[in-house]
């Protein structure tokens, strides 16, 4: 059986585990030693260690296997894993003295190393006294293959925020709530985490709503969730914010379409880019020189960045429209004005998205304040003198009320437990939005937090009184 070429077999078209069956066992090929040159001393292939003894420069097979695994794991390996010829070239480039093991040996060593490191992480997570928060996402690749990723977030024994991918695998159809919940539950059991889960953050896909409901009921059967799973499901803030802003952008869809098509037109060829650069220079140039960016229509923050970049080049696009008869997408003066207003209005939302999307710091304590700021901005913009901003704010407020009528109050707990905020901050925020209902909302959050604390305290006492095996 010949070694498959990477164009036929790669990471995208090999099912899980198939790489081991595909790789046929072959004997380890011994590397032929280069011919000795005349006049070279016999000690040329030897090194003198600290004890004055000679030892061979050639690395033994066991060390070569270790170096091979380390190179694959630690380096940015540029070849498909099953492209063994590519691995040989890369490892030899990193260390010419390595005696390459066979393909099956390499696969076996990497799997053993993975299992060893996985066991270390499992033991570490078993020692933490607190619970873990989960995030999960499912998507379809360009090859129409589905994938699912499950990540655990927790604070370790050294009070450091940790995020660990528990599972990243193919998700075969159908992507129903039942199948998704079974996949996640099996992963939790594999990592012995089914009794340590606090919450699961998901986007707003309907299949995810069904999945979390099934998974919550499965975990509640054994009383594995706090407060009967009242705080188990958390909707992804960044995803909701994206839906809200996308609704507002519909007001100026014509202006956005012209700007987007203008960027596409200029970036379509080097000749057009050169002509556009000439227009920039003839228009007086741009001091900041950010360059024009094309957005991804499903991500509103990239649309904001596109607006921010393009607005520097209004004169250049206008000049291009005069000299290039094929360019037919130049926005009008009114559409440029509308784009400028949109960028100013969306800037606070862009800053909030960047803040809440951080991965190197805690974000749960920031959540309540950011939601409150957004609602305050939308309420203030409902009476804005500019018609475009008013219409955007109205659309976004309707979407906001739809999602935040069911937002998880556990995220308000983060603001209370933050020493810089506490309960007084919650009272201030609620009173600013609606003084008539603020006291009732604060008392409701206070009682739920007390209930959560008492249940967690009870669980802690039960676990400490259970004799260790």
Question: Could you explain how this protein is built, in words?
Answer:
The chain is of the alpha/beta class. Among the domains are: 58-127, no CATH class; 128-235, Nucleotidyltransferase, domain 5 (2-Layer Sandwich), CATH 3.30.420; 241-358, no CATH class. It contains 17 helices and 7 strands. It has helices at residues 18-22, 61-74, 84-94, 103-127, 177-190, 206-220, 237-249, 253-267, 270-282, 300-310, 314-323, 333-356, 364-381, 387-404, 410-417, 422-433, 438-465, and strands spanning 46-48, 54-56, 132-140, 146-155, 161-170, 197-202, 233-235. The strands form 2 sheets. Strands 5-4-3-6-7 form a 5-stranded mixed beta sheet. The longest helix is centred in the C-terminal third of the chain and has 28 residues, at 438-465. The protein starts with 17 loop residues before the first helix and ends with a helix. The model is unreliable at 1-58 and 78-82 (pLDDT under 50). InterPro entries: hAT-like_transposase_RNase-H (IPR025525), RNaseH-like_sf (IPR012337), ZnF_BED_domain_contain (IPR052035). This is Zinc finger BED domain-containing protein RICESLEEPER 2-like.
Which overall shape is indicated by the principal axes computed on the Cα atoms? flat
How many strands, what sense, and barrel or not for the largest sheet?
Answer: 5 strands, mixed
Radius of gyration: 30 Å
Estimate the helix proportion, in percent: 40-55%
- Give me the strand/helix succession: HEEHHHEEEHEHEHHHHHHHHHHH
Protein structure class: alpha/beta
